[in-house]
Fold these 2 entries.
Entry 1:
Amino acid sequence: MPSSPALRLPNEILLKVAECLDFQALIAFRQTCRRLKEVIDRSSSCRYIIELAENGMCDGVSGSLGPSERLRSLREFQAAWKTPGWIQGYHWPQLDNSDQLRFPAAVSGNVLAHYMPFAARGTGELLVQRFPSKWRGIPGGNWRIKLDSPVRHVHLDDSQDLLILVSEFNAHIRALSTGRAHPCTLPASETIDLGADFAVIMFTMDVYDDLVVVHPLRSDSSSSIARVWSWKTGELLAVVPCPWKRARVSLLDANYMLFTSPSGPEHLVLEVVGFRRNATNPSKSATCTYRFGFSYPVVEGPKLLYLSSGTLRSNGTGPDHRATQSLGFFYTDPQDRLLVLHTHALDRYLSPIVAQDIYVPTRALLSHISSHPFDGAVVDVPWREWGPGNTRVVSVADSLSNRILHRDQLCGMRVLNAPDTRRKQSVRVTDYHPRRVTSVMASGQHPCLAWEHDEGELSRTVKDIPLPEGLKPETIAYVLCEDVIVLLSHSNIFYHPV
C-alpha cells in the first residue's frame, strides 16, 4: 500500500499537480518515490520545466506550441552553437566601409542599433537590426528611426520595447519598434529633464523594469548625484549622492545600485547603495551602503599612481518581458547577470602596471546583502567574506584599443573572449551560469565544450567557435547577443548561434 494517501491518486492527477510546481518543488516532488519519478520523466511538460531551469531560461509566449514542441525547440536551441558556418546579416549601405559599422551605439537582447548623424542638418537616424532565433520563434528584421535632434547617448531594452535617446539636457522615451511615443509612457513623461549642464562630459545609464538611473560624468569639481526616474510616469523617485564624480552606475535590482570608479592606491571597492522609491522627497531615498572590498595584487614602489575599476558594458535584458513579444517561446532569466570589472594599476604616466578582469555574479552581492542586513549608514565587507568561491580573477593584457573594439563582450552569465595567440581562428564563449555548468558536468563533454574549475573560483564551461574564413581577427568587433555572436567588420556583418 502507498505510504501517503496522495500516492493513491491516479497518475493523471499526480501529473496535473506536478505541472503546477516550479523547478525546485518539482525536483523535490520527483525525488519522493520511484512512481513519481517515472510519472514526471515521461511527461514532456515536466521535462520542459526542469530543462528550462537547468539551462537558465524562463517560459515565454507559448503560442500554438505544446509542451513537447517547446521541449524539442529548447533542446535544439541549446545545441545550435555546434552548427557549422556563419550567416551573413543585413548590410546597411549607409555604413559601407565605415568604422561606424564596428561600433554599435547600443545593444540589447538580439538587437543592435547604429547611430548615423547628419552633420549638415543637425539630425540623424538609428539603423536597427534584430537577429533571428528560429528556435525561440523570434523573426529577424531591420528598420530605421529618424531623429529630430543630435543624440549623445542611446539606451535600449528590447524586452520592454524601450528606446531612450539622451540629448544635451534631456532623455526622450520612445518605442524601439517604431521610434514613436512608448505606449506605456504617460504623455507628460515622454521627455525627462536630466538636470544637466555644460560641464557634463557624458552620461552613464541603466534600466531595470520601470526604473532608469542616470549619472552625469562631470569635468568640474561639482558634487555628483545619480537620479532614478520612472520612465513610465516621469516621476523622480530617488536622488543618490555618488561617491566619486566620475562613477559609473548600474542597477542590480529595483532596490540597489552599483558604483565603480577610480580609487586610491590602497584599495579597490565596489560600492552598492540601497535606495527606496520616494517621489515625495527623492533626496531622502538612500538607505544604506555596502562597500565590497577586493583582494588586489600588491604593487610596490613609487611608480604606482592609483587603481581604477569599471564595469564592462553588459548586453542585458530587463526583468519585465511581458511588454513585448520579443521574448519568444523561452528567454534567458534576466536575474542571472554577471558583472565584469576591468581593473588596473596605473603609474604616473597612466600606463598600466597590472590589469585584471574580475567576474562577479550580481546574485553574489545581493545574496550577501540579504543575509547581512544592518541599520547603519555604511558597512565595509572584506574580500574574505564574499569573494572566494563567488568570483573569478583573471590577469589580462590591458589594451585600450582592444577594450573599445571588443566592448560588448558580456550578456547574461556569458562572456565572449576575443581570439588570442593560441586561438586566432576561433572565439571563445565562457559560461558562468551554475545550473548550465552542472548540466555539462553531468551529461558529459562535447569535443568543443569543456568544464573548468579552480579552487575558490567560479566554475564555468567554455566553447570555441571557429571564425569565418578570410577574416582577420584583429580587424573585427565582436558583440555577444542573447542568442548569437555578431562579427562586425568594415563592410560585413556575420552572426552565429551561441
Entry 2:
Amino acid sequence: MKDEFSSSPHTNAVQYNIVKDVWGYRSQLIGERAQELLGARCIKLTAISIGANHKVYRVAMDDGRTVIGRVLSPSFTEYGAGVYPEDTMEAEIATMRYVKTHSTIPVPEVYYHDKDEKGEVGGEWMLLEDIRGTNLYMTWPEMSIDQRQKVGLAVVDVWAQLMRLRFGAIGSINSPGNDAETFYVGPMTFMPTNVGKTTGPPPRSKCGPFSCARDWLLALARLDMRFLNEAPLTEEEKSRMIPVISDTEAAPLPYLDNSEASDPSPQSTNVLFHVDLGVHNIMVDSDDPTIITGIIDWEGACVVPLWSILPRFSNPLRAPYITKPDELGALEELRSLMERTLSDAVPEWAKLITECREARMLRIRAEMSTAEPRNVRMPEGIF
C-alpha cells in the first residue's frame, strides 16, 4: 500500500495512515496494538513530536478516542550520545503507575509496553493516555499574574505529594514483569546521556539500590554511576576525586549511615524526585491554564534523601520567559510564595534545608568530583 501523507495546518505535523513514517520508523505496529487494546479501528497516526530522545505519535481511533505512542529512540547515538540503561523505560512506567496509585498527581495511564526486541518499530515504546490540555510552556507568557500564582501553587502541591511518598532505599522505582500492583526500589536509572563518545550505560551492579545516603554519595564521587566513555580520566581528574571521596567517608553526619527502616527521622527519609519538573513537562487545561491536567516525562525519576531536594520551577520565573520589566517583582513574590507554601505543606523538608546544608554540599561535590574545586558551588534558592 502506498504511503499517504498530508500536512496539518494546525500542528505542522505529518499525518499518515499506514506503512513507514517520515522519521524512518515502522509505526504500523503502534496502531495495530492500539486497535487490540481499545477494540476500535485505528484511522490515523500523527507524528506530533520529535525530541533528542523520543518520537511521539498520536493514535486516533474510529470511535473518537486517542492514545499516545512514545518511542525511546535517541537521535544522536551515531555520535556516541543517547545511551541509556536498559531498564529506563520500565522504571519510568513503574514510577508513573506508583504515583497514580499513591497520590492524586495526574499522570498518564500506561496501556502497553514493548521493548521492540525484533526491531519492528525502531525503539522501545509504550502506549499511554493522551493527556488533554496545553503545555504550560506555551501558555505561561500570556497568563496573568493571578493565573501564574494559581498554577504555581498547583505545582507546589505536586512537589509536596512527591515528598510524602516515602521509601526505604535510594534508587529508582521498578516492578517485576511490569506488574501494575507490585513495586520495589531497584538500581537507579537515568535519562539518555547527551555526552558524546559514550560506549555504554553505567554498570547496573553499581547503581544501587543504596541502603543509606553515604553509600549513594560515595557511588557518585567514585563515578560508579557514570556512563562509560572512551575518553579515560586524566591524572588531574583522578587526583581531584581523592579528597571528595575521603571527605564523604569521614563526614561526621550519622544520618548518612541510617536507613529509614532503622531511623524514621526526617534526615533518613527517602522520597520520589521528578528530575525534570519544568513547564515543558506540565500540561494544563486549555480553557483554564491554572488547572494541571498532567505531569509527563518521568524518565530518570529516582528516590533520593529528602534533604537533597531543592525544587526547581525556574524556567518561567526567570529569563527568557520574563519579557516585561514590571513582571520581575511579581515573579519574585511568586517564588517566595511557592517556597513558603511548600515549607508549610512539608515542614520536615523546610527544616532540613537548613540542618542538612553540609550534606547537600557533599552531594554537589560528589556529583562534580572530577571538577576544579573553585567551580563547585552550592546552588541557592528554591524554585
